[in-house]
Design goal:
Shape: elongated
Number of domains: 6
CATH architecture of the largest domain: 3-Layer(aba) Sandwich
CATH superfamily of the largest domain: P-loop containing nucleotide triphosphate hydrolases
Number of strands: 49
Strand order of the largest sheet: 12-17-16-26-25-22-23
Largest sheet: 7 strands, mixed
CATH class of the largest domain: Alpha Beta
Strand content: 15-25%
CATH topology of the largest domain: Rossmann fold
Length: about 1050
């Protein structure tokens, strides 16, 4: 059946197929426009009546009939047609007819318009592959090992004789032909599923020494009925079909060229006795535009042709009028990348136009640089999902993948900062112009202070330049930074990893943060294994980062960035501090990454390995003095080695020398070739960039980030066991010391104050270094997709959990050795509220300072005032009272005492109004004593009056006796005098009392103020981080 189908297709192909030639305009107002020509004999020139491709009269150097293209014997040929200024192909003037090939650049006259051949139809017989010249038999794709070694060294898995034969005819089964091995090899696709990779368990096992871009499990070819599809298995360097990186299962057509990573093993898919239905680029023609049709040119069109992935019409959607996009196979447009959610977005078309909706994806959907939830679309909108660009078409959507072909164009980057040592400004970058082709390894050289780090930060969007623009595949980086952040990797000088974690844990949490939230554990394991293999860290997987060498730690930092498989990787002095041997290994790793289909741009002082770069940038005082291959730099500067470069440049602090070198380079052939000519292809300079606006995380994504960050931070804290022992040991020690210091008869003020102060101290000291110590990690993750609220929230969650243990130990031990009245279920929550206020204080300190040492120095300045103004002995008065209102220790201390009074049955020694206030125990006693004295005075006066009255009566009686005689009166006996009252004194045992309560507080107010302080400190921390935000 298959053979019959092949013959039928072959006959159809040969009988009715139309030859097609696809060209792209590279210059002029039509730059980026594509034209499909079906004529087999036509002219190019200015005469519209004779020329199939016609140029305007103002086009320089174009004759009326300039060149002729013909289809001859299965080959497209081009010849000059007697033009005045000649016809050039790939820079060489034609002396006669020459064949055209894909990628050939046709130029009409010197300095005239240029076209590039994007696709051409070859003759059927030209694509029929001859038998192996060495006579090797066909190998079945069952355990075939392509190690590149000699036959006696190869460990081949043989198959039964004749396995590749069907109906007695050789090669009736489709097969793969290895094109770049040591010897030609053919592997019959006799199994329904054929895997390709370097692992020996693959059906086709490739030698990683011969093909370094191959992954363990790289790709799989699967048969579905009569068709064959190839699918990438999440490989690091990707799988390419006909030069295009695939993002979903891709149909293999006869003659298709399969590439296992850029520059890797190359196979041709062959269906025996069938001509190729598709040329290597036929399926990927981006625009079928006639020569008469005009389109507005945008810079990104120059790279679309090479980045094309697929095109889907709305009528092809499972739901008519809708096209779903996602990682899952059931989507209409499947993009097999872990940054893409399973159901990511949906395009819809109705009578009013197009709409796009984000289906709650993790990494978002961006339209013109802004993250959207749902919006109406225009035909000119730039739509990005991860590294994929989408272009609206009248009947559907075209998809382009930027990962393996990220071109960078730089226009007039200028950056100035205020002069610290005088007036005016200092120019760090001066009109930098560059054009960096895709997949190149570029080094930035220059003396110290030349502006290398400033330039690399401007190129990656970390610190945008005030003037000028950076284009990535023709799209403004600064205006679209949020959608490009997933395609850009950045490794700063400092390590961007937690040393407490193992290598595997480090990469795992990076994957959880940056990949789609619906990524499975198996998918994460696969990408981690791949990245570890690429960076040579597979054997160090379980080793803590702190135990790695300097070079290995740098590899981990690189691995962190490779998790998302970025198209561009920036590195700032990645080899600083490494020994020469390690430095060379790291440089070769970068070179390998670049060869695998990534653009790698790095700053370095090391000159020894300059030969590894494709191009080097030389800066002096922020000015471009060279851009081009390092070998040409030697001739340009007249030096024998790159090591002599800095000496040749002269005084690195001389602006005059720098300007002279800059002007010389701008007038050189190298500048025209490597800078000016590539930038001219863009035809028009894009408008100046606007300051990027950061998009906001959704609530659900914020919660996800908080959970991931909390889990990672918890692992970091748990890994430092000695520190945890110290933290948990502080609490019981302080409680025991307090018990030893406080007398049994003392009032409870001191124990309560120690509780309040300690929990705040714990929180502040625990948190004071937690942000600043990982500033480089925060900065890098913030560039990608880190939210400030989840980041600070994760710190708060973990530190609160640690603090709860500390608070529980402190309170428990203190309650055991010292009386702290109050219900534990009420005291502990109040202590925790005070503790989180302390944490918020510490996090604010950590956000404000530049180093951990500064944070350590600031902690006492914040905590000692808590003692001075906390009101330990007496209520604060005057200015001190106002200062105490901003001291959380005072409010916490007051709250604990009020709990003791209300719930613990404690008394208050000193009333609100002072010692004479009867609301306090002292005032009550004073009042009671005074009352007793007053009563005694009254009793004494009454006694005196009674005695006086009796004496007066006795006197009268005695006088009467003396006058009249009679019975002599008796002397009255004195009454018992009133007893003096007992005077009470304040109790010597004050253990059931607190000294005082504030005159303005209440338990509810104390709690409210503490919560307000926490929210204020938390908000200020985020505000500080936002103000320091590299993109804010």
């Amino acid at each position: 059946m298959k053979l019959a189908r092949g013959v039928r297709l072959l006959c159809t192909f040969q009988a009715g197929r139309t030859m097609e030639l696809v060209l792209t305009y590279l210059s002029g107002h039509r730059a980026g426009e594509h034209v499909v020509v079906t004529d087999t004999d036509f002219f190019i020139g200015r005469n519209p009546s004779e020329c199939r491709l016609c140029f305007a009269d103002q086009e320089q150097g174009v004759s009326r009939r300039h060149a002729r293209i013909t289809w001859q014997n299965g080959i497209w040929m081009i010849a000059d047609a007697g033009s005045s200024y000649g016809t050039f192909v790939n820079g060489k003037r034609l002396q006669g007819p020459v064949p055209l090939s894909i990628g050939a650049v046709i130029q009409l006259g010197e300095g005239g318009p240029r076209l590039r051949v994007e696709r051409l139809d070859a003759a059927p017989q030209a694509l029929s592959l001859p038998p192996s010249s060495h006579g090797h038999p066909a190998s079945s794709a069952i355990g075939f090992n392509l190690s590149g070694k000699s036959n006696h060294d190869q460990k081949l898995h043989h198959f039964p004789e004749g396995r590749a034969l069907v109906s007695g005819r050789p090669w009736s089964t489709p097969y793969l032909e290895l094109l770049n091995g040591d010897t030609p090899r053919r592997i019959a696709l006799s199994a329904s599923r054929v895997t390709i990779g370097r692992d020996g368990e693959n059906t086709i096992a490739l030698d990683p020494q011969r093909f370094p871009t191959v992954s363990r499990q790289h790709a799989v070819i699967e048969q579905q009925e009569e068709d064959y599809f190839i699918r990438d298995l999440g490989s690091f360097n990707g799988t390419l079909v006909n030069g295009y990186r695939i993002a979903a299962p891709t149909l293999l057509r006869p003659g298709a060229l399969i590439e296992i990573g850029v520059g890797g093993a190359k196979f041709r898919f062959v269906v025996p006795e069938m001509a190729s239905e598709e040329t290597p680029t036929g399926e990927h023609t981006v625009a079928l535009t006639s020569s008469e049709r005009r389109r507005t040119t945008t810079p990104q069109k120059l790279t679309e042709a090479s980045n094309f992935v697929t095109r889907k019409n709305f009528v092809e959607g499972k739901v008519p009028g809708c096209l779903t996009v996602g990682r899952a196979p059931e989507n209409d447009i499947q993009l097999d990348l872990l940054q893409i959610s399973k159901r990511h977005a949906v395009f819809r078309r109705d009578t009013q136009g197009w709409t796009l909706e984000d289906l709650e994806s993790t990494n978002g959907v961006y339209v013109n640089g802004r993250r959207i939830k749902q919006c109406r679309l225009r035909a000119t909108d730039v739509i990005q999902i991860g590294p994929f660009l989408f272009r609206l078409e009248p009947e559907g959507v075209a998809v382009f993948d930027t990962r393996s072909r990220a071109r960078i164009d730089v226009f007039d980057l200028t950056k100035e900062v205020p002069n610290r040592h005088g007036t005016g400004k200092v120019r760090l970058l001066d009109r930098i112009r560059l054009s960096i082709p895709a997949n190149e390894f570029v080094g930035l050289f220059g003396p110290s202070g030349a502006g290398k780090s400033t330039l690399i930060d401007a190129l990656n969007g970390m610190r945008p330049a005030e003037q000028g623009i950076v284009l990535v595949n023709g799209i403004n980086l600064y205006e679209n930074i949020d959608c490009f952040k997933q395609s850009i990797g950045y490794v700063p000088q400092d390590d961007i990893v937690h040393r407490e974690l193992t290598v595997e844990q480090t990469l795992y949490y990076v994957a959880r943060m940056r990949l789609s939230s619906d990524t499975s554990e198996e998918e994460i394991e696969r990408i981690l294994t791949e990245v570890l293999d690429v960076t040579g860290l597979s054997t160090r997987r379980k080793v803590p980062v702190s135990q790695l060498s300097g070079g290995q730690r740098k590899r981990v930092s690189i691995a962190v960035e490779l998790v998302t498989q970025p198209g561009i990787i920036f590195l700032d002095e990645p080899t600083s501090g490494l020994d020469p041997a390690t430095e060379e290994k790291i440089m070769h790793l970068f070179r390998q990454i670049a060869l695998g289909g990534h653009s790698v741009i790095m700053t370095t002082h090391a000159m020894e390995n300059a030969k590894l770069f494709d191009k080097i940038v030389v800066l002096m005082r922020g000015r471009l003095v060279w851009f081009g291959p390092p070998s040409e730099a030697l001739d340009y500067f007249g030096i024998a080695s790159v090591k002599e470069l800095f000496d040749k440049l002269g005084d690195p602090n001389s602006d005059e020398l720098a300007i002279a070198w800059q002007r010389k380079f701008e007038q050189s052939d190298a500048y025209q070739k490597y800078v000016q000519a590539p930038l001219i292809e863009l035809t028009q300079k894009p408008p100046a960039a606007k300051r990027p606006e950061r998009s906001h995380l959704t609530l659900w994504r914020s919660l996800e980030q908080t959970l991931v960050l909390s889990a990672r931070y918890a692992r970091v804290m748990l890994a430092d066991r000695l520190n945890l022992i110290i933290l948990f040991g502080q609490a019981p020690i302080i409680a025991l010391l307090t018990g030893m210091a406080v007398g049994q008869s003392w009032a409870r003020d001191f124990p309560y104050f120690v509780l309040a102060l300690s929990v705040i101290w714990f929180g502040c000291s625990n948190a004071a270094r937690e942000i600043v110590k990982e500033a480089s990690i925060y900065k890098r993750e913030r560039m990608f997709n880190l939210g400030i609220v989840p980041y600070v929230g994760s710190k708060l969650v973990v530190l609160t959990a640690i603090g709860f243990v500390q608070v529980a130990l402190l309170y428990g031990v203190m309650a055991a050795v010292e009386s702290v009245p109050g219900p534990p279920l009420l005291v502990l929550p109040y202590l925790m509220i005070s503790h989180v206020v302390g944490i918020a204080m510490g996090l604010l300190i950590s956000a404000l300072v530049q180093t951990s040492e500064m944070a350590t120095s600031l902690v006492p300045l914040v905590l000692i005032p808590q003692i001075l103004f906390g009101g330990l002995l007496l209520p604060n008065e005057g200015v001190a009272k106002g200062v105490s209102l901003v001291m959380p220790a005072m409010w916490s201390y007051d709250a604990l005492k009020r709990i003791g009074v209300r719930q613990g049955g404690l008394g208050v020694l000193r009333g609100v109004g002072g010692e004479d206030d009867p609301s306090g125990e002292i005032g009550r006693i004073k009042q009671q004593n005074q009352q007793a004295i007053d009563d005694f005075k009254e009793q004494l006066e009454a006694y005196r009056k009674r005695q006086q009255q009796r004496l007066d009566e006795y006197k009268n009686d005695l006088e009467g006796f003396l006058r009249t005689g009679g019975v002599r009166p008796e002397m009255p006996k004195p009454e018992k005098a009133p007893e003096a009252p007992r005077i009470e004194y304040p109790p010597e045992d004050k253990s059931r009392f607190v000294g005082f309560l504030n005159d303005f507080g209440s338990l509810l107010l104390d709690v409210g103020v503490l919560m307000g302080m926490f929210l204020t400190l938390f908000f200020l921390t985020m505000l500080v981080l936002r103000s320091k935000d590299i993109l804010g």
